[in-house]
Amino acid sequence: MTDLNIKSMIPVYASEDLPKHEKPRMTETGWFRSFKVNGGLWLIILFAWAASMMIGCCITGLIVRKTTTDRVTEEVTHKMRAEFQEYLNQQEEQRKKESFLTGDASLQAAINALGKKLGIHVAGLRQDRKVTKAGAETYCYVDIARLLSGLYGKTIDDVLNGPVENYDENHPVRDEDLEIGMKVAAAVMTGHYPNGFTTDLQFAEINADGSVTARNKLKTDSTTVFWRIEE
Q: Residue 91 in contact with residue 107, Cβ under 8 Å?
């Protein structure tokens, strides 16, 4: 049998190319439905994860900030108390030598001694320089900062006889002057420092209006810290 005869025996449809199998196209509605079921689920999971991370970071940041603030405040307060405790220990030794009483009477005696010294300084500031009450109180805390720093001597007399303005140990003192000195002395001796006070505030400036500004540097710059008792 020849090739020609063989070909004539094969049906015509067999000589045609068979249609290729194509994957049915997904309609737009089907695609959207598939995305919601598959891709949408993953997108929701991703969004939820990102949101949880952001919330976690915010909470962590707040916790770290509060912890840092509390730690710094505690360290500053502890430092001031430690420095003043050292001063009190020195004063206690001196008081023992001078036959001071012990206990509460000794504390009151210390308050009176410091308050009278500060009262003399207040008198000079108030009467001669027309400093306001709050200004005089601010300057007294500068005296205390210098005392606690140990850079100006070991006693309040060393500090007041140093580079401060308008201190004269023989200056007449009014009751209102002594009252301010006693107020500062009582606060310091019992550890009740005003907000914002640190031992770095060792410099004072008397302003034209009679107020006083304390600062932590002799020459001011962008890092200078200013502080005062409000009127």
A: no
Task: Output Rg (C-alpha) for the chain, integer angstroms.
Answer: 41
Q: Residues 158-211: pLDDT tens digits?
A: 999 999 999 999 999 999 999 999 999 999 999 999 999 999 999 999 999 999
Here the tokens at position 154 are 């070991």
Would you say the pTM of this structure is higher than 0.85? no
- 9, 21, 29, 47, 216 from 24: Cα distances, Å: 36, 9, 14, 33, 81
Answer yes or no: are the C-beta atoms of 183 and 137 closer than 8 Å. Answer: yes
* Distance between CA atoms of residues 46 and 52, nearest Å: 10
SS3 213: strand
d(CA 188, CA 115): 10
